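Hi there, hope your week has been kind to you so far. Do you reckon you could talk me through the fold, stretch by stretch? Thanks so much in advance, here it is.
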Amino acid sequence: MKSLSGCPPFRKQKPKETGIDPIAVFNILKSFPAYVFSTVKWTIPIDFEMFKKDTDQIAEDILRGRTNSLS
């Protein structure tokens, strides 16, 4: 059986990440359909498909333990 200790969700947590479950955050962010964001009263026009794509990328970055790839 292969060890999971080297996989990002099972690596040692960084101090600022303590208490945050990356799998839970990933699942929460990925669970929102794009239309849900249209219920928010935005101060500027939002491209909801792009917003969902960016949110999905953020979820992947969190799950994999990567820095923000959108910045």
